[in-house]
Amino acid sequence: MQSSDFYDIILKLKSLGLTEYEARVYLALLDRAELTAEEISSLSNVPLPRVYDVLEALEDKGFVKIISGRPRRFEALDPKSAFKNYVSYLRRSLDNEISNLERIFDSLQPILEEHYYSSRLKIDPSSLLEPIPDLHEMEDKTREMISSAKQEIIIFSQLFTWFNKIEKEIHDALGRGVKVRVLMRILNPESREIFNRLKRMGVDVRIASEDWYPVRGTIVDRCKLIFLIWVPREERRYWSPIVYRPHYTENRGLISIFLDAFEYRWSSASTS
Questions:
Q1: Torsion of the alpha carbons at 55, 60, 65 and 70, rounded to the nearest 10
Q2: How many Å apart are CA 11 and CA 159, to the nearest integer?
Q3: Which H or E element spans position 247?
Q4: The pTM is what?
Q5: Which residues of the chain have pLDDT under 50?
Q6: Fewer CB atoms inside 10 A, N or C side of the chain?
Q7: 3-state SS class at 176
Q8: Apex CA 82: angle with CA 78 and CA 88, to 5°?
């Protein structure tokens, strides 16, 4: 084989994915059958200490076969069979590599998605809710929300005893054409009076028929929610005063849950 042809074939074998030494050893075995490692080293100019590793790699890839005996001899498979074996080897290797990549990605996915959704949705998963320190700040925030309402205000409150604190803002919102709905209960004369005042203002107000959830809140334009959950706290077998937990959120998923609960109760509520 001429020198130019030899190097051209070496380059093409390397383009298939063989190393320089693997290409040289395979070409040597194509020219001569059943060679020993020493003979292969001499014909291919591959150092003898490296020949054994190269032959093992070529066997794995399907290019050569080992002939048992002392010493062991090696023979090249015909090019068509060798290439078919090599393609199968590459497929197995690729499948294994993909499996390894999938295992790595499974551990990475939660971390990567947290970064992705935090930047795209502008949501910090660790702070979907913004705590409100106390009732006073909650009322200030509620007035601010109602004052900025453009389409709809939804209020759910058992007795709505805090109505007078936002009455002006509701009146102004109605004047801007904002739809206001209030869901409450009537359990005493004071709550009946608040119900009647809302009616006179033009608020769409209804009386809930079921027992009340331990929650009150305001939703503005279906994109802002402020709510308060109250829970009794037991200390030393005695009940202490109610604990309030106000929060604000603009998370659409959480707001949807409150809206669904409101609409369900609204549908069965009475108007008088």
A1: 50
A2: 86
A3: strand 243-249
A4: 0.54
A5: 235-241
A6: C
A7: coil
A8: 155
